[in-house]
From TrEMBL:
Signal peptide: none annotated. This is 5'-3' exonuclease. Coiled coil: none annotated. SMART domains: 53EXOc (SM00475), HhH2 (SM00279). Keywords: DNA-binding, Exonuclease, Hydrolase, Nuclease. 5'-3' exonuclease acting preferentially on double-stranded DNA. It comes from Micromonospora thermarum. One of its GO terms (molecular function) is exonuclease activity. Gene3D superfamilies: 5' to 3' exonuclease, C-terminal subdomain, 5'-nuclease. Residues 3-271 form the 5'-3' exonuclease domain. Pfam families: 5_3_exonuc, 5_3_exonuc_N.
Amino acid sequence: MTAPIMLVDAPSLYFRAYFGIPESATTADGQPVNAVRGFLDMLASLIRTRRPGRMVCAMDHDWRPDWRVALLPSYKAHRVAPEGGEVVPDTLTPQVPVILDVLDALGITTVGAAGYEADDVLGTLSVTQPGPVEVVSGDRDLFQLVDDARGVRLLYVGRGVAKLEDCDDTAVRSRYGVPAARYADFAALRGDPSDGLPGVPGVGEKTAARLVDRYGDIDGILAALDDSGSGFAPGLRANLAAARDYLAVAPKVVRVALDVPLPDLPTDLPTAPADPERLLDLAARWNLAGSARRLVDALATRTG
């Protein structure tokens, strides 16, 4: 049997680490390393408890791709900094290269792709890597990747790694009332202010789920709007009709790309650091000894 692969949404985890751990976690000269420590501790916990045989950490090489903005200009518009780029805390930005350096010293693969978000990299890996697959993220949009037939599950860490939710299709249906394969249609209807998706006025989660359940997808909903006997309440019909242009593009924005061009990647998770001396140097320089040790121990014992 192929060893399970864990696909990690690295930005999702290090943002959570940054906001979950005080900036009092610093180097000797006072540089914050709270995101680095938290991220490494999350990985250690995941490896220790899930025991994957393979791992890839996906990165955002383009957090707001032009092709999504062209479809929906409001996409993440509220997160654009005045000078351009994403609004990111000043003390988080310099910690990301440290995370990448530590992962490289450990021998854990990281990958991103120009013009695509980490979500798209995860989506592509989820359909191209042999299963079983566990995707780790706190991003709700990745519920759409769950696929029981291929053994793809989402380890949802919206409440933290210690309270992760192991989600198959039954869990997605229980949570939202729709199958994972229809999550993008559901999310487009409901909207998501955190991503600049307005949704359809008056359509919350329950109504969105009911519409998807009855009509299958947004194409089916739009087709039913043209049928005077389709049974929409007048207010709902009016709101859906007014949102027709939005609904024509929103699912494409929400849908995770599954065809990102990626290089051949080493995916085997090491049982020991690839470059122990470099890891020791990084741990000493950035005051990461405890987190690095816990992660190395998790790697060494995961097959025990």
